[in-house]
């Protein structure tokens, strides 16, 4: 029984638990945003981009509020806020320029 308990404790405290895999999966949002930088602004959804900015802002706060602090999750969401904000700015600028014409 002690070997089973030892394995359970090592899995529970392993660095590759949810504190690792969840932030790793969230980097998919960042990669998608980087891919969208190559697209024309007309193809960027302002509602979805704004939603991703709010989502990442909320989870930035969450990543520092939990114990232990998850700096990998925090860095992922900081990067996502920057990219999505840039995309949203590009889209709004594009819409404003085309509205005037």
Automatic annotation (TrEMBL):
It is a multi-pass membrane protein. GO terms for cellular component: mitochondrial inner membrane. It catalyses: pyruvate(out) + H(+)(out) = pyruvate(in) + H(+)(in). One of its GO terms (biological process) is pyruvate import into mitochondria. Pfam families: MPC. Keywords: Membrane, Mitochondrion, Mitochondrion inner membrane, Transmembrane, Transmembrane helix, Transport. Signal peptide: none annotated. The chain crosses the membrane at residues 20-37, 49-65, 71-89. It is found in: Mitochondrion inner membrane. Mediates the uptake of pyruvate into mitochondria. Belongs to the mitochondrial pyruvate carrier (MPC) (TC 2.A.105) family. PANTHER family: UPF0041 BRAIN PROTEIN 44-RELATED (PTHR14154). This is Mitochondrial pyruvate carrier. It comes from Piliocolobus tephrosceles (Ugandan red Colobus).
């Amino acid at each position: 029984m002690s070997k089973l308990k030892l394995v359970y404790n090592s899995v529970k405290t392993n660095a590759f638990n949810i504190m690792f895999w969840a932030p790793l999966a969230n980097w998919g949002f960042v990669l998608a945003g980087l891919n969208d930088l190559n697209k024309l602004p007309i193809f960027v959804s302002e509602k979805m981009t704004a939603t991703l900015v709010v989502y990442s802002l909320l989870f930035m706060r969450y990543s520092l509020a939990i114990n232990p602090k998850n700096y990998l999750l925090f860095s992922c969401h900081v990067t996502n806020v920057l990219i999505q904000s840039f995309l949203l700015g590009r889209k709004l600028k594009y819409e404003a320029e085309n509205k005037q014409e």
